[in-house]
């Protein structure tokens, strides 16, 4: 029985600008997506009828996640009689602005296209992806990109060269809540961080005194960046000396990850 295995990489936003709110509730953005080698592991195997998900994280084993929704959408759309067994080992932090759920959804769509022998092109998958989440089309595309629209209009760009340290405070950020707070702040004109890198810095700093203190300390010497709506931050570094200086500033109860940039996603090589 055919089985497909793949890695689902995370992304960072090199910059993120929110332009305006659309009538459908989404926001038009201008951003740069960069793939990184922090990744979840997924496998897909045909089963008789239903969709079954096994994971090291319980919240992924029900029907209220992007993996199940992606599998069910493509199963119903193309009247697929077979089911699928999906295994996922979750490594990408949740609620961190790294796109883990979107990456999982994209890998599910591409893998099931292969597994169920669907004669559809990438443009169809991207249309399906857009109905699941704004970042999912980028992960279907599988290449570093400048993103516009709600993130679905993509233009290829080259990878950065520096290594990265991701820094995750003990905070879970809801994308929906962050956008709602952004709209409120824009209406009241209460921005103060003056960051040109990410429009969500102001809101993120307001949510945590520990983040504000860390931002003030690190941004004096390094370019501290925020990915997505947070909560993960990152610094690009060139050598071990720079890295050690950054590590000393990270609070002991925060997580961090050493990452490298990718040029292409493993999704491009699913056979």
Order of helices and strands: EEEHEHHHEEEHHHEEHE
The number of E-state strands comes to 10
Radius of gyration: 19 Å
Whole-Å distance between the termini?
14 Å
**What's the CATH C level of the largest domain?**
Alpha Beta
Summarize the biggest pleated sheet.
6 strands, mixed
- Helix fraction, binned, reads 25-40%
What ranges have pLDDT less than 50 throughout 5 or more consecutive residues? none
Structural class: alpha+beta
Quaternary state reads single chain
- CATH architecture assignment name of the largest domain: 2-Layer Sandwich
Strand content: 25-35%
**Which fold does the CATH topology of the largest domain refer to?**
Ribosomal Protein S5, domain 2
- Which descriptor suits the 3D outline? globular
Number of domains: 2
Mean of the pLDDT scores?
Answer: 94
Q: How many DSSP H or I helices?
A: 8
Written description of the protein model:
With 271 residues, the chain is an alpha+beta fold. It has two domains: 155 residues, Ribosomal Protein S5, domain 2 (2-Layer Sandwich); 97 residues, Alpha-Beta Plaits (2-Layer Sandwich), CATH 3.30.70.890. The strands form two sheets. Strands 1, 2, 3, 4, 5 and 6 form a six-stranded mixed β-sheet that branches. Strands 8-9-7-10 form a four-stranded antiparallel β-sheet, with helices on one face. Strand 1 and strand 2 form a beta hairpin. The radius of gyration is 19 Å and the shape is globular. The mean pLDDT is 94.
């Amino acid at each position: 029985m055919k089985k497909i295995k793949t890695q689902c990489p995370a992304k960072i936003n090199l910059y993120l600008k929110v332009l305006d709110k659309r009538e459908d509730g989404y926001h038009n953005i201008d951003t740069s997506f960069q793939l990184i080698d922090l990744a979840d592991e997924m496998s897909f195997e045909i089963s008789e009828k239903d969709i079954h998900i096994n994971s090291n994280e319980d919240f992924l084993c029900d029907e209220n996640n992007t993996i199940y929704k992606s599998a069910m959408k493509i199963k119903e759309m193309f009247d697929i009689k077979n089911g699928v067994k999906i295994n996922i080992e979750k490594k990408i932090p949740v609620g961190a602005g790294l796109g883990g759920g979107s990456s999982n959804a994209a890998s599910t769509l591409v893998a099931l296209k292969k597994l169920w022998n669907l004669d559809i092109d990438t443009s169809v998958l991207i249309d399906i992806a857009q109905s699941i989440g704004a970042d999912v089309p980028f992960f279907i595309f599988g290449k570093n990109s400048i993103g516009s629209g709600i993130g679905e209009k993509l233009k290829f760009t080259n990878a950065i060269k520096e290594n990265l340290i991701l820094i995750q405070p003990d905070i879970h950020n809801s994308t929906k809540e962050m956008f709602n707070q952004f709209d409120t702040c824009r209406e009241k004109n209460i921005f103060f961080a003056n960051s040109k890198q990410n429009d969500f810095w102001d809101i993120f700093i307001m949510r945590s005194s520990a983040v504000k203190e860390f931002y003030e300390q690190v941004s004096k010497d390094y370019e501290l960046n925020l990915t997505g709506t947070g909560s993960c931050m990152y610094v690009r570094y060139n050598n071990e000396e720079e890295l050690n200086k950054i590590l000393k500033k990270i609070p002991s109860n925060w997580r961090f990850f050493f990452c490298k940039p990718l040029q292409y996603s493993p999704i491009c090589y699913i056979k």
